[in-house]
Design brief:
This protein has 375 residues and is an alpha+beta fold. The protein has helices at residues 18-26, 168-172, 181-203, 220-226, 241-253, 266-274; strands at residues 15-16, 36-37, 45-50, 57-59, 70-72, 84-88, 94-104, 109-114, 128-133, 151-156, 158-167, 231-233, 261-264, 297-299, 305-310, 319-322, 327-339, 347-360, 368-371. The chain has 2 domains: 15-51 and 153-371, phage-related protein like fold (Alpha-Beta Complex); 57-138, Thrombin, subunit H (Beta Barrel). The chain is built from 6 helices and 19 strands. The strands form 4 sheets. Strands 4-9-6-7-8-5 form a 6-stranded antiparallel β-sheet, with no helix packed on it. Strands 12-19-16-13-15-14 form a 6-stranded mixed β-sheet, sandwiched between helices. Strands 1, 2, 11, 17 and 18 form a 5-stranded mixed β-sheet that branches. Helix 1 packs across helix 3 (181-203).
């Protein structure tokens, strides 16, 4: 069959299909097309360092009485001596009282004094404490507590494969519009893997490979749900602008600073589209030659302009607001195809196989998800 474009000339060769696979991912209407592909996994347990995302606000865990001199918070993580604080009452009004931290007494308690001639006042449990500033005096020494030791997170690699088979007769018959029957089937199998990966990267449980389990990478929603940081419970209510905006506020308070994508099922995407009653929020991206409109971006009340990506693999009762730069598809073995034709077979077979994992950095703080939405 040598010399004919329709024959398959790679019987004993391996072909690197990594670039082809990445192009297929980017061209499909699934969530994975916004994730980057890069790095190199060198073990079936792939580890990475987590940067610390310091919270920018905290919550009072008990009422504060004026001139008491100490406050009890849910957590004092990120608070340092010398921090100047401001307060938002449970009514939503901003307190005129400012305080400076004199001691971080424990993981939940700080000692304070009034700052800047402001008037001390009572605050109820649930009041929000925010960092107003962290001023330094002249000739101070470097502070050791400004540094953080990164923690380690991990995911497992997952092997994915398909086999493309085409009869020798089919190879000999010209096919209009494609570059060869077997090449076409290889691309179709890669497309099938891409759609499988779209679901895997969202929902798959993280399972270690052993004699009983093939091993699977954990999807990014599994990481978000294991975190204790940015979670908004809708309590079976319908998705609304208030719920979305609250989610942005929670995430920003915990340190998230690059929320650029709302990920959801098309059902919830339609609800976001229905928010638009004035034509200015959410933003409408519309080709004027096409009748109708569909929301592809949302503007939060804090000024965030985020893309909306609808994926049918997403759970219908959840919405995630993510920082895609912190989610990466990492190969251990980029996809290759190699000959898998048994001796004497009246067909040609190519096995497409690769091994990948998913990095989800700062799952608890750099992203936020909304749970228990009405369907």
């Amino acid at each position: 069959m040598a010399g004919k474009q329709l024959s398959y000339d790679y019987q004993n060769d391996k072909r690197d299909l990594g670039d082809v696979f990445e192009q297929i991912i980017k061209s499909r209407p699934v969530l994975t097309n916004i994730f980057s592909v890069g790095g190199k996994a060198t073990n079936t347990k792939h580890e990475w360092l987590e940067d610390i995302v310091a919270p920018k606000s905290w919550t009072l865990n008990a009422g504060y009485t004026a001139a008491d001199g100490s406050m009890t918070l849910v957590s004092t993580t990120g608070i340092k001596v010398g921090d100047v604080l401001q307060f938002e009452k449970t009514t939503g009004a901003r307190s005129t009282f400012n305080a400076i931290v004199t001691t971080v007494t424990s993981s939940t308690e700080i000692a304070i004094s009034t700052y800047g001639s402001t008037t001390d006042e009572d605050l109820a449990s649930g009041a929000i404490v925010t960092l107003l500033g962290r001023p330094k005096n002249e000739s101070t020494e470097a502070s050791a507590d400004n540094g953080y030791e990164p923690t380690t997170a991990y995911n497992y690699t997952q092997i994915m494969d398909r086999t493309a088979k085409v009869s020798l007769t089919s190879i000999e018959i010209p096919k209009y519009g494609i570059g060869g029957a077997l090449n076409y089937q290889v691309e179709r199998q890669l497309t099938d893997i891409a759609y499988e990966l779209a679901n895997t990267a969202i929902n798959m449980p993280r399972v270690e490979r052993d004699s009983s389990n093939a091993g699977t990478m954990g999807g990014f929603m599994r990481f978000l749900k294991q975190g204790t940081g940015n979670v908004v419970d809708a309590s079976s209510a319908a998705l609304s602008q208030t719920i979305l905006n609250n989610a942005f506020e929670v995430a920003r308070a915990n340190g998230a600073d690059n929320l650029t994508t709302i990920a959801c099922h098309p059902l919830q995407a339609r609800k976001i589209s229905a928010f638009n009653t004035t034509g200015d929020n959410p933003m409408i991206m519309r080709d004027e030659t096409v009748a109708g409109s569909y929301v592809t971006r949302y503007v939060s009340d804090q000024g965030d302009v985020v893309n909306i990506v609808a994926d049918r693999n997403f759970n219908k009762d959840e919405v995630a607001i993510i920082d895609p730069t912190k989610i990466t598809l990492v190969p251990m073995r980029r996809f290759q195809d190699k000959d898998a034709t048994p001796a004497g077979a009246d067909y040609v077979a190519r096995r497409i196989i690769g091994e990948y994992t998913l990095e989800v950095k700062n799952a608890s703080n750099s992203h936020v998800y909304i749970k228990d939405l009405a369907i």
